[in-house]
Amino acid sequence: MARSHYVRGMHWDQMTAAPDDLRKRATRLRRGVGQLGILESILTAAEGPWVGAMDADGRGTAELRMHLAGRYRFIAVVTSAGKLSLIHLYEPKAGTKKGRERVLSPKVALRRGWSDDDPMPRQRLWLDYLLAWVGAASADVDRSAVLRWQLVGADRRLEAMNETVDSLRESLAEREALRDELAAEVERLRTELRALAPEA
Question: How many helices (H) and strands (E) does the chain have?
Answer without folding.
Answer: 4, 5
